Amino acid sequence: MTHSPTPSGSAPREADAEALRQRALAALLTARERTALLTDSVDDHELTAQHSPLMSPLVWDLAHIGNQEELWLLRGVAGREAMRPEIDGLYDAFEHPRATRPSLPLLAPAEARAYAAEVRGRALDVLDGTALNGGRPLVRAGFAFGMIAQHEQQHDETMLITHQLRSGPAVLAAPVPPAPTDAAGLPAEVLVPGGPFTMGTSAEPWALDNERPAHVRDVPGFLIDTTPVTCGAYQEFIEDGGYTERRWWAPEGWVMVREHELTAPLFWHRDAGQWLRRRFGVTEVVPGDEPVLHVSWYEADAFARWAGRRLPTEAEWEKAARHDPVSGRSRRYPWGDEDPAPELANLGQRHLRPAPVGTYAQGRSPYGARQLIGDVWEWTSSDFLPYPGFSAFPYREYSEVFFGPAHKVLRGGSFAVDPVACRGTFRNWDLPVRRQIFSGFRTARDA
Q1: Which residues pair with 198 in a beta bridge?
Q2: 3-class secondary structure per residue, 241-304
Q3: Cα-based distances in Å from 342 to 204, 292, 347, 351, 359
Q4: According to the model, what pLDDT value does residue 135 have?
Q5: All domains of the chain, ordered by start, with CATH?
Q6: Cα separations (Å) of 43 from 25, 48, 164, 359?
Q7: Of 114, 258, 392, 430, which sees the most CB atoms within 10 A?
Q8: Mean pLDDT, residues 142-171 taken together
Q9: CA-CA distance, 202 to 335, in Å (whole number)?
Q10: How far apart are CA 403 and CA 399, in angstroms?
Q11: Edge-first strand listing for the sheet containing 274-279
C-alpha cells in the first residue's frame, strides 16, 4: 500500500489525491449505508425512545451525524453558511448529557433523515471540488472527510450499543463468524521480548490527534495471552467467588459490585444451572469459546488479579500488535500494512458477535497473538494520556479534554467497529465502570 502523508506533512501527488478522494467517498457511503440500516430497522417510536439513560435516542445520533458533517465539511472545508444554526446546540454532545437529550426539541425522524441526506448531498459536492493536495491541514490527504467517516462509524457503533440495550424482539441479523481450525494447539500466551519499538503514528493520513506523533517506547519483556479471555474462563472466575471476594477488586470496583449487586457480565443471567445472555433481542446459552463481552475495566482487572496476572499496559498491547522483531518496524496492523479483510479480522458489523478465540490465523501478529484487531475492545491498565509532542487537531474536545486518570484506554476495536475507525494505533477510552460497550480483555505478566 502507498502511504499518503499526514495532515501535517507535505501534500500528496495528484494521482494519490484522486485515490484518497475515492477512498473518502467509499468511506462516507459505507458509513451512511450502515446508519440507514440501524435507523430504518426500527419504527419512529423506537427511534425517539430512550432505551437506556446511558445512551441517546437513536434519532439524536442520526441528526448529530448530519450536524457534525455540516459543521466540518460544509462550513469548515467549504466555508458555507450554516443550514440550521438553531439546532447546533441541540446536537452538541458537550452541551447536553445523554440522559437529558429526550427532553430536547429534537428533529423528528423524517426531518432528521431529510437534514442528514441534504447535508450528505452537499458534502459529496464539496468532496468532488476540494483539492486534497492543497496546503490546508484540515483537507490535506482528505483528513476532514476521513474524520467525518470515522465519526459517523463511531456513532454507528454507539447506535448498535443502543440496539443491544433495547428490549423487544430482534431486528438485526448477521451470519455467524467463522470458527478456528487450530485453536486447540495454540499456546496460552506468547512472549514479547523487551526492547524499543515505535508507538503511535506520524504517517497514517486519517489518524486522529491522540494517535500522534510516532515515538519510541522501551518496553520490558512480557508475556500476553494469545487470545482474549473467553466466556468459559470468566465463568470459572464467577464460580470461584470472583464477585464475592473483595481482595480481587480495586476499591472503586468493589463499591460498584456491592452497589449494583453485580454477579456476572452485563446481559448475563443464570437459569436452570447454565449461564444465558441476551444478544440483540435473542436469548442464548453463553458460548464458552467466545471472548467475554460487556465487562467493565474493574471486572477485567479483578479477573486478571484472580488469575495471578494483570492487564497489559497500552504500550505492551501495541507492541504485541504492531512490532515486527525481524524488521524492527511497526506495522499498521498485526498482519502487516494491508487494509483489513474478512479473513483477517472481525470488523464492520459483518457478524453481530465476536468470533471464537483462535479464529483469524492470517491476522495474527509477528509474535503469534490473535484477534488483536476486531472482535472485542480490549481494556488496558493505562490511563488515557497524550503522547509526547501531542497537539490537539482539529479541536480540543476530541481528545484533550478526556486526558487524565478518569478514563482507561481500550485498544483493538470490536466486531462493531468499521475498518475506517480501527488501526493498530487507534485509541479508544472510557470510564472504568462502563459495561454496555463491546469490551473484553486479555491478560499479561512480566517475562
Answers
A1: 216
A2: CCCCCHHHCCHHHHHHHHHHCCCCCCCEEEECCEEEEEECCEEEECCCCCECCCCCHHHHHHHH
A3: 22, 21, 8, 10, 11
A4: 76
A5: 14-165 (1.20.120.450), 186-230+305-446 (3.90.1580.10)
A6: 29, 9, 16, 36
A7: 430
A8: 97
A9: 20
A10: 7
A11: 268-271, 274-279, 282-285
Closest CA to 55 of 384, 444, 436: 436
| Residues shown for the chain | 447
pLDDT, tens digit (0-9, with 9 covering 90-100), for 63-121: 999 999 999 999 999 999 999 999 999 999 999 999 999 999 999 999 999 999 999 99
Cell of residue 223, nine digits: 508475556
- 252, pLDDT greater than 50: yes
> Checking DSSP bridges between strand 377-384 and strand 439-440, what pairing results, if any?
parallel
CA atoms of 254 and 203, how far apart (whole Å): 42
